[in-house]
Amino acid sequence: MENVEKSETLKLRRRFIGASCKLFFNHCPLKIVRASGQYMYDEQDNQYLDCINNVCHVGHCHPSVVQACCQQMAVLNTNTRFLHDSIVQLAQRLTQTLPDRLSVCYFVNSGSEANDLALRLAETHTQGKDVIVLDHAYHGNLSSLIRISPYKAHGRGGTGCPDWVHVAPNPDPYRGKYRDKDFLQGDIGVKYADDVKDIVEAITKKGRKVCAFFVESLQGCAGQIITPDNYLRNAFRHVQAAGGVCVADEVQVGFGRVGTHMWAFQMQGEDVVPDIVTLGKPMGNGHPLAAVVTTQEIADSFTATGMEYFNTFGGNPVSCSIGLAVLNVIEKENLMGNALKVGSHLMGQLSAMKERYSIIGDVRGAGLFIGIDLVSDVNTREPATSEADRVITRLKEERIILSTDGPYNNVLKFKPPLCFNMEDAKHLLKKLEEIFAELSRTDSQVNFSTMTKPLTNEAIITTRAESTDVGDDDVEPTLMEKRARLVENSSNM
């Protein structure tokens, strides 16, 4: 493939790719030409530490995954209307990691396809329409899923959720309706689940049927939210008692990322069992592969309609061979153990850092799924959106790739490949310490009370997940950049 100058690549992208397809750091984007393990390399061969890629789960271009792909592609690639071994082997391996009742698999190409199929299965089985989702949830980019994803439907360009979609409060113990400073964690989970119960009762009182409760086992786009104890147990009980189907969306957090369990919903207890589980992103380590796993009863309802389910590429021999290779690597390289070990070290050190820097309001996580909630005021928990943007910009300068998310785009979002090791963790912590110290020094040198004001709703929307995707011209400096310039100017006076 011909090498193209970065400026020409950017020019061609702007010419031929839709502008709604955003880049990280659009005002100064990275051109990545190769990757290996937890590292990515630009066109000048500069190495970047990848802290955000939960797709290349076992590491970029893992040799075993590449080999499995090439070997199978050289022999056979066809559809699922022919018998082949890899699809049944992958289905067997997946179901062995799940509760016994989750025993039937459908293979698709993306998490969006998986959630769309899960919605169809639920509608067919329950003959209901009403769906319950969490505030700030994101379940995929298909039209059917934008409707049940408040992260998009209530965000910029969204038209809101339809009346058959019921939005339950996000079970966020730090910023949500019920907070850790007011309730015990187990009690918080029960109280948030009671909100789901209230929605279920409101639906049934209208003579309507509950179709499904869609829930990300741990919420990513909402700001790396760790689901409080007793939430899924009670919420699932309320929904299932009304005849609804519970869907655990593991697209972002599955396959051992949490360290203690293969699937994040299992953190809530062995008795917590959804009716459908959707899998995606990490399943193919960058290859388009996803799945829906459900009960025999729900699968039978789907079959009883008489309509065939066929997916041209879903479950093809190459994809399934790659999926098997990913599972093999997770097991052979003990990546769940690594996620637990490195993640625990990061959580411990970040929690200690929180005591030194008031900008860190909360540190939360499980395994290699961690969020750092930045605040401008520890007591009011006012989100520090501009400062969060400054942190990821500074990390990029240090050749570390991190992103922000959450309703106010103030949460540093950490979800690297599972091969991210202890040395990588120490390097990240060292750079974060330096950057937080810089921010702390800047804050102590200048009184900025006259130049700060609360963000308006419009400003908050503008600084959401696309905050690093501003245009090249007339880039507005961040609040921290304004502060730094004032400090520099005052020192030169």
Quickly describe the structure.
By secondary structure, the protein is of the alpha/beta class.
Walkthrough of the structure:
- This protein is an alpha/beta fold.
- Helices cover 39% and strands 15% of the residues.
- It has helices spanning 6-16, 63-73, 85-96, 111-126, 143-146, 150-153, 185-205, 231-241, 296-304, 317-332, 335-356, 385-397, 422-445, 457-462, 479-491; strands at residues 32-36, 39-42, 47-50, 104-108, 130-134, 165-168, 210-216, 245-249, 276-279, 290-294, 360-366, 369-377, 382-383, 400-401, 403-405, 411-414.
- It has a seven-stranded mixed β-sheet, sandwiched between helices. Strands 11, 12, 13, 15 and 16 form a five-stranded antiparallel β-sheet that branches.
- Strand 12 (369-377) and strand 13 (382-383) form a beta hairpin.
- Helix 7 runs parallel beside helix 8, helix 12 crosses helix 13 (422-445) and helix 13 crosses helix 15 (479-491).
- The longest helix is centred in the C-terminal third of the chain and has 24 residues, at 422-445.
- The model is unreliable at 446-493 (pLDDT under 50).
Features:
single chain, globular, alpha/beta, 493 residues
What does the secondary structure layout of this molecule look like, with pairings?
Blueprint: H1 6-16, E1 32-36, E2 39-42, E3 47-50, H2 63-73, H3 85-96, E4 104-108, H4 111-126, E5 130-134, H5 143-146, H6 150-153, E6 165-168, H7 185-205, E7 210-216, H8 231-241, E8 245-249, E9 276-279, E10 290-294, H9 296-304, H10 317-332, H11 335-356, E11 360-366, E12 369-377, E13 382-383, H12 385-397, E14 400-401, E15 403-405, E16 411-414, H13 422-445, H14 457-462, H15 479-491
Parallel strand pairs: 3-14, 5-6, 5-7, 7-8, 8-9
Antiparallel strand pairs: 1-2, 2-3, 4-10, 9-10, 11-12, 12-13, 12-16, 15-16
